[in-house]
Amino acid sequence: MICSGEHITGYNQIYKGGAIREAACLAHLRRKIFDVHDSQPTELSTTAMAGIQAIYRIEEEIRGLAPAERLAARRRRTRPLVRALRRQLMRQANGLSRHADIAKAFAYGTKRWRAFNRFLYDGQLEPDNLIAERAIRGFTVGRRNWLFSGSFAAAERSAVVLSIIETCKLCDVDAEAYMADVTERIQNDWPASRWDELMPWNWVRRQEMPLPLAA
């Protein structure tokens, strides 16, 4: 099991034992370097940005391929770029004041390098968690309207509903129609042995499936 996102000290405990492995978000590293580069561009920041962009260009080319194919491409083409980027960050960071903004950005990468490398060893992983961030953007913006859930149970129910909605989006399914239909089928004693047919990725192909006959 793998957790992808920005490294926060409070999460260190969940990585103990190896059951959950951290997959750090390369976009966070790029963002930290870009923020410095945008305000004070230097040869160091320009080179680092170019190295990260080269990695992303490869990702654009292989997006949509099978995990095994993506993994092979990353081993052949991306891994040398990643290693070169690490050498650059470490070499240049050693010659900078640790208080310099660009040094802090480089240190963020070198301290978490194993987590940033995780996508090189698993073709199912993305180099960043931008897909997840985009998926929760609507909820993140909307939460200003529902700052408090009222109770822990209500927050859990909210998370379930939002997860269903986002899954429907990924499956190109109308979430409102899906939940209305599935709710009706459950109320009509849909057989437990056929729960898989009600999943969004199956429902899109079975919208005309009949309700079970009443006993």
Structural key phrases:
215 residues, 2 domains, two-stranded parallel ribbon, 10 helices, 58% helix
Task: Supply the number of structural domains.
Answer: 2
Order of helices and strands: EEHHHHHHHHHH
User: Which geometry do the CA atoms define?
Assistant: elongated
Oligomer: single chain
Count of DSSP strands: 2
Low-confidence stretches: none
Rounded to the nearest angstrom, the radius of gyration is 22 Å
Q: Can you list the strand order of the major beta sheet?
A: 1-2
What's a concise summary of this model?
This protein folds into 2 domains: 2-129; 136-203, no CATH class. The chain is built from 10 helices and 2 strands.
Provide structural commentary:
This protein has helices spanning 26-39, 43-62, 67-94, 101-111, 113-116, 130-135, 137-142, 152-170, 175-187, 200-203, and strands at 2-5, 21-24. It is mainly alpha-helical. The chain folds into two domains: 2-129; 136-203, no CATH class. Strands 1-2 form a two-stranded parallel sheet.
